[in-house]
Amino acid sequence: MIKKAVKYVFLFLMLYAFLCFLTPYNGYLKSRSIKNQISYLSGIIDDGYDDILQQRFPEGKVFSNALLALSVIEYTRNYSVKEEGYAHIVDNCIKRLVSKSTRKIFHENIEPKYGIFYTAWTNLVMQEYKDSPLFSLSTIQEEIAMKVETLSSRIIETQTDSLRILDTYAGTNWPADNLVAMTSIASGEIQASWLQLLLDTGTHPSGLIHHVGSNPSELRGSSQALISYFLHKMQYKEMESYYVSYQEKFVDNYLGIQLVKEHEDGSSEEDYDSGPIIFGYGASATIMQIKTDAVYSGNKRTWAVMNLIGLPFHLFGKKYYLFKQEAMFDLFMLWASVEN
C-alpha cells in the first residue's frame, strides 16, 4: 500500500513538473497562466498589497502598479484581447500611481517633480496604455491624456537647455531610470542625445551603461538586463552589439537556461536591486533576463524553468508562486510571460 502511494505521488510530481515546464510552449497553458496571474495580482493589489510592498521595497508601490498595468496592456495588445475588465485593472493601477499616497514617497522639490523614477514609470504606463487598443475602454481617458502631456513636458523641459542625468531622489541617480524616461517620451532628438550622455558618462572599459551615478565604473546584472530591454524598446541602433557585450560579462547559459550574475566578479552581496543571490546569480537579474531575451531571441527555456522553481498553484482561477510569499516575483514573472 505504501509503495503504491509513493508511486502515485511520484507520478503526480512528474506530471506537475512536466506541465510547469510545458506552460510557455503550449498556447492553452500559457493563456491560462497569464489570465490567472492577472486575476490573482490585480485582486491583492486592489486590496492594498502594494502598500505592503512599499514597506519592503523603496519603490514597491510604484513598481507593483506599473508592472501589473504594463503586463495587462502588453497582454491585451500582443494577444488581441479587448475586455472592459482589463481596462478597469489598468485604470485602477493608474489611479494609484497618481494618488497623493504614492507621490508622497518621493521628493517634490527636484526636477522633474517627484524624481525621474516616479515620473518615468508613471508616464511609461500611461503612454503605453494611450497607444494601445485597450485604451478605448478606459473610463479615465481624458485624465490620462492630460497627465501624459504634463509628465512628458516635464521630462523634456529638464533636458531642453542642458542635458543631464536626472535624479530619482535628491542628489542620487540611476541611469536605468533615465532610460525608462527616454522610452516614455516622443522626442527622438532628445532621446538620442540623452542616451549618448549615459553612454559617455560611464567609465567602465566595456562601454556599458553604469548602474548608479555615484559609481560610473560599476555594472550590475539587474540593471543591465533592464537597460538592454529598454534599448531594444527604443530601437537603439547599436542594441544588438550592446546586448552581446552584456551577455558576455553577466549571462551564463546552461542548456539554454540563462542565469545572470548580479556582480561582475560573481560575488553574492545582496541589496534591494539584486534580490536574493544564489552562487552569484541574481534573482532580479535572471527574471528580468527572461523578458529581455524574449525580445532578442525568443528564448522560452529560462521562463519554463523559473515557472517550475516558483512552485505555481492554480486555484479558483488564480495563479500564484512561492506560496504567496513573494508577490514581486509573481509580478516580474507575469511581465516576462506576456512578452513570449
Topology order in helix (H) and strand (E) letters: HHHHHHHHHHHHEEEEHHEEH
Q: What fraction strand?
A: 5-15%
Our measurement of the CA-to-CA distance between the termini, rounded to an integer number of angstroms, reads 44 Å
**Count of DSSP helices?**
15
The gross shape turns out to be globular
Gyration radius over CA? 20 Å
The structural class is mainly alpha
Instruction: Characterize the largest beta sheet: strand count, sense, and whether it forms a barrel.
Output: 2 strands, antiparallel
Query: Could you give the count of β-strands?
Result: 6
Strand order of the largest sheet: 1-2
General description of the model:
The chain is mainly α. It is 60% helix and 5% strand. The chain is globular, with a radius of gyration of 20 Å.
Describe the secondary-structure layout.
Blueprint: H1 2-22, H2 27-46, H3 49-56, H4 60-78, H5 84-97, H6 100-103, H7 115-130, H8 141-160, H9 175-183, H10 188-201, H11 221-233, H12 239-250, E1 251-254, E2 257-260, E3 277-278, E4 281-282, H13 283-296, H14 301-309, E5 313-315, E6 318-320, H15 327-337
Antiparallel strand pairs: 1-2, 3-4, 5-6
Could you provide a short overview of the structure?
With 340 residues, the chain is mostly helical.
Please name the defining characteristics of this protein.
340 residues, mainly alpha, two-stranded antiparallel ribbon
